[in-house]
Amino acid sequence: MNKHLPHSVYLIHGWAANGRIFDGLRPLLPETWRVHTPDLPGHGNAPSDGTFDIMAAADTLAAEMPDNSDIVGWSLGGLVALYIAIRHPHKVRRLCLTSSFAKFLATTDYPQGLNRSALDKMIALFEQDYPKYMRQFLQLQLLNTPDGEEIIASVLPDMVKNGAPAALKAALDALSLADARPFLRQIRQPVLLVYGGKDSITPPRMGEYLEQHLPFAELQIIEKAAHAPFLSHAAEFSGLLKRFFG
Q1: Residue 46: helix, strand or coil by DSSP?
Q2: Active site residue 238
């Protein structure tokens, strides 16, 4: 990569959230990085036609990215990031997947997945009172974080100001059906996998599977983190990114 060009880093959020979830992480990243926090279709400020297509979301993001960008993908955002690397490899220099997966639900040949998703019941709650239940979700992720309430106070107001994402159900359906396993061997970029030891939504075994099947991957587990290590352990997470992205 030309060292005189700004270093573009894309932070891709997960299901039911939007780019503002990264507001606490951004100040900890180097000022020389050009950081982008796009909203996925039907989330945050992004328009929605009522559908959600992971590959289309990957193609749309890739179209606006400079070549040799670095990507952080969280949860569903990690799946989108995987498809960017698979479909547009020249766009991706390095990839960090945090609390993400190649496939979400378990099958006989994939016991690493979840037998059932607890997220389905969240749809009605988010639609009923998005600020209240997003706060509860974040509180669960920050249980072991001393300044958890301060972190929530700093990110929640901007995160929930647009109301519940329009693509809640469509995105969860797409997430539940997606299966990137057949393509993992194609990804030649270095991949950093960061998981929370206390994550019940995407347990570390999902990261172990990715580490085994991606050609150039390293796994880091933050033992006391849950599903949002970049929020609960932002200093540690940003340190990993700085080392990995350089």
Answers
A1: coil
A2: no
Catalytic residue among 39, 227, 233, 238: 227
Look at residues 149, 172, 158 and name the one whose alpha carbon lies nearest to residue 130. Answer: 158
Q: Is the pTM of this model over 0.70?
A: yes
Residue 124 has phi, psi (to 5 degrees) of -65, -40
Distances from the Cα of 190 to the Cα of 10, 37, 153, 215, angstroms = 16, 21, 35, 8
pLDDT of res. 5 = 61
DSSP assignment of 193-242 equals EEEETT-SSS-HHHHHHHHHHSTTEEEEEETT--S-HHHHTHHHHHHHHH
pLDDT of residue 50: 85
For the question of residue 48 being annotated catalytic, the response is no
How far is 23 from 40, CA to CA, in rounded Å?
A: 16
User: Which pLDDT score is estimated for 1?
Assistant: 47
The token pair that represents 52 in the structure block: 């959600």
147 catalytic residue (yes or no): no
User: 10-residue block means of pLDDT along the chain (246 residues)?
Assistant: 71 98 97 97 92 97 98 98 98 98 97 89 95 97 93 96 95 96 97 97 97 98 97 98 96
Strand locations in 19-127, DSSP E?
33-36, 69-74, 92-98
CA 97 vs CA 13, 74, 136: distances in Å: 11, 6, 24
Residue 117 is classified by DSSP as: -
Give 164-198 as a DSSP string: S-TTHHHHHHHHHH-B-GGGGGG--S-EEEEEETT
Q: Which of 8, 75, 99, 232 is catalytic?
A: 75
